[in-house]
Specification:
Blueprint (H helix, E strand, L loop, with lengths): L1 H11 L2 E6 L11 H17 L5 E9 L8 H5 L3 E8 L6 H7 L3 E2 L3 H7 L4 E2 L7
Parallel strand pairs: 1-2
Antiparallel strand pairs: 2-3, 4-5
């Protein structure tokens, strides 16, 4: 991700970095395509809405704030947090609540033809 967005940072004159906290694992067991997609979306938005300053990614181990009730964390020996911060225009508290709601496609054929992520569906369950 560092190399992928470095040219964007340079063209906008922004500082850009990724920090791995001490003790961060060398590797993680996850869906690499989904993680890459999520990080690319977060970074693309950070750079899109940041005119001055910086975009920063932090990877750190997490001891609290997550639940073993979910299937995936229950199997994990440890959990990491990845945060993307920037000095851009920001997002309101109300918008923050909405952006992490689950999404589902109403009609997969339409999405395949026209693209897009689907419509908000609060009853969709994410894993």
């Amino acid at each position: 991700m560092l190399r992928e967005f470095e040219h964007v940072a340079q063209s906008k004159g922004l500082r850009y970095g990724i920090d791995l906290a001490p003790g961060s694992p060398d590797s993680v067991f996850t869906d690499p395509q989904r993680l890459r997609q999520i990080l690319k979306n977060l970074l693309a938005n950070a750079f899109k809405f940041t005119e001055r300053g910086e975009v920063h990614v932090q990877v750190d181990g997490v001891a609290t704030g997550w639940s073993r009730r979910r299937r995936s964390p229950r199997k994990a020996s440890s959990v990491i947090a990845i945060s993307v911060t920037d000095s851009g225009i920001g997002i309101t508290g109300e918008q923050q609540k909405r952006i992490f709601e689950a999404f589902a496609q109403g009609d997969g054929t339409t999405a395949r033809t026209y693209g897009g992520t689907g419509s908000a569906c609060p009853s969709a369950e994410s894993s």
